[in-house]
Amino acid sequence: MTFQRARSEEQRAVRRQAILETTSAMLDEMPVAAVTLNELSRRVGLAKTAVLRYFESREAVLLDLLDDRTTTWLTELEHELDQGVDPSRSALERAEQAADVLSRSLAAQTVLCDLFGAQGGVLEHNVSVEAVRRHKRASLANLALMADLIRRHLPEVGERAELFCLQALLVAGAVSAYTSPPPSLLAVYESEPALAVHHIDLQTALRLAIITSLVGFLPRS
């Protein structure tokens, strides 16, 4: 893919979208930590300096992608919760069903979990005040949307839904870092299975954390 210099806002929007789509494709092949501006510019067909005209840094690209992927995922999650939570059940039963849906849905979003894991320690660094402001506004909007989905199926959680959602996303980011061991660690596990006793399965770990947190947010009867 090669581009000539963008001369209109529409052309600039096309370039930005191409950069985001290329980065997204890269993340299907490699972790966030392996994404570099040099490789991104090569794949998108722009000079590194040209990429920096549209995004001020690698981290700025990834923050925008995090916001976009979160919005897309929440659209899917809405349908999954509608299908997976029975409104006729008790609050505890609905909490268990919601935990099943959330853990399964998040575990399928390995790239998104990787981005959540890098958000605070990496992605929100090396970006300008305005870039962080734009990201935080989008992030808070997505968090509010997710909280509304939870309240729709578990109104008992009430105003604490946003805090629950924030905790769920933070846990997803933290746990995901331990669920894809590097080749050296896999070799150790294979040669000495006893050392793999705490090898983490993402969906299982997420469900335990989510149901524990969610039940804690239900009012005591």
From TrEMBL:
Keyword Zinc: no
HTH tetR-type domain mapped to chain residues: 13-73
Location of the DNA-binding region in this protein: 36-55
Keywords tagged on the record: DNA-binding
Entry superkingdom: Bacteria
Gene3D superfamilies: Tetracycline Repressor, domain 2
MF terms (GO), sorted A to Z: DNA binding
Keyword DNA-binding among record annotations: yes
InterPro entries in the record: Homeodomain-like_sf (IPR009057), HTH_TetR (IPR001647), TetR_C_34 (IPR041483)
Chain segments annotated as coiled-coil in the UniProt record: none
UniProt name for this protein: TetR/AcrR family transcriptional regulator
Organism of derivation: Micromonospora orduensis
